[in-house]
Design brief:
The protein is an alpha/beta fold and 251 residues long. It has a single domain, classed as 2-enoyl-CoA Hydratase, Chain A, domain 1. The protein has a 6-stranded mixed sheet, sandwiched between helices. Strands 4-6-8 form a 3-stranded parallel sheet. β2, α1 and β3 form a beta-alpha-beta unit.
């Protein structure tokens, strides 16, 4: 459990992807690539109808981008590739012909909010607070903003971006990031299994067509996200942002 990983399992018509990083399940560039590749690989499996994404532990579902890696980045192209990884993962989820469901246990920060915004259905526990903390470290949620705005609306996105404080699971449920919230993990697991049993009896073709309808307004996201990755890259290489990141790490 000490090393970061992304792995998948298949059980009948349901696939599961689990990711782990000992540093609060933050996402490195390798993990972003691995998550994207797992989504694409499972999406090509004709026997699968749904993919469930989860992480390890119960304190942090995802702490967003790896601060350690951001501080190590020293050139513009590497920085672009790092931030583009979030856009590519979001697009892989949105473009998947399978239903993508997230199981959220613990806090969610930054890029993790973007990941959840791309999912079709999100289960969470009541302790699963979330925030967009990017402005606190000298950057902004540029790449993930199309997905988050579409999911919770521009006003709620602006509130999360500007305020940077933790939002409760209830607030996130009301705004649409979470579809259902539960008092504990046992209750969540029970309810997600009930939904998956229903989904197993759905038509693959019907799921494929509804996913096509749901992604109809995302056709230009690739271009938008690439441009915004460049904005993030410029900021993360600035001494101002690097100092913010160093200070934030020591808190």
């Amino acid at each position: 459990m000490e090393n970061e990983y992304v792995k998948s399992f298949v059980n009948g018509k349901i696939a599961a992807i689990e990711f782990h990083n000992p540093k609060a399940n933050s996402l490195t560039s390798k993990m972003l690539i691995d998550l994207e590749n797992e989504i694409k690989m499972l999406s090509n499996n004709e026997n699968i109808i749904a993919i469930v994404i989860s992480s390890t532990g119960n304190q942090s579902f995802c702490a967003g981008a790896s601060f350690d890696e951001m501080l190590e980045i020293s050139d513009f192209q590497t920085a672009i590739e790092f931030f583009s990884g979030f856009g590519k993962l979001i697009l892989a989820i949105i473009n998947s012909p399978k239903l993508v469901i997230a199981k959220v246990i613990g806090k969610v920060v930054g890029g993790g909010v973007g990941l959840l915004s791309a999912c079709d259905y999100v289960f969470a526990t009541n302790n699963s607070t979330a925030k967009l903390s990017e402005l606190q470290v000298g950057i902004a949620p540029f790449v993930i903003s199309p997905a988050v705005e579409r999911k919770i609306g521009k006003s709620a996105f602006a509130e999360m971006t500007i305020d940077t404080e933790w939002k409760s699971a209830n607030w996130l449920n009301q705004k649409g990031l979470y579809n259902k919230i539960f008092n504990d993990v046992t209750e969540l697991e029970t309810e997600i299994n009930i939904l998956l049993k229903k989904i197993e009896n759905y038509s693959n073709e019907a799921i494929f067509q509804i996913k096509n309808i749901m992604k109809s307004d995302t056709n230009n996201w690739g271009e938008i996200m690439n441009r915004r990755a460049e904005l993030s890259a410029k900021l993360v290489l600035s001494e101002t942002t690097r100092e913010f990141l160093r200070r934030f790490k020591t808190k």
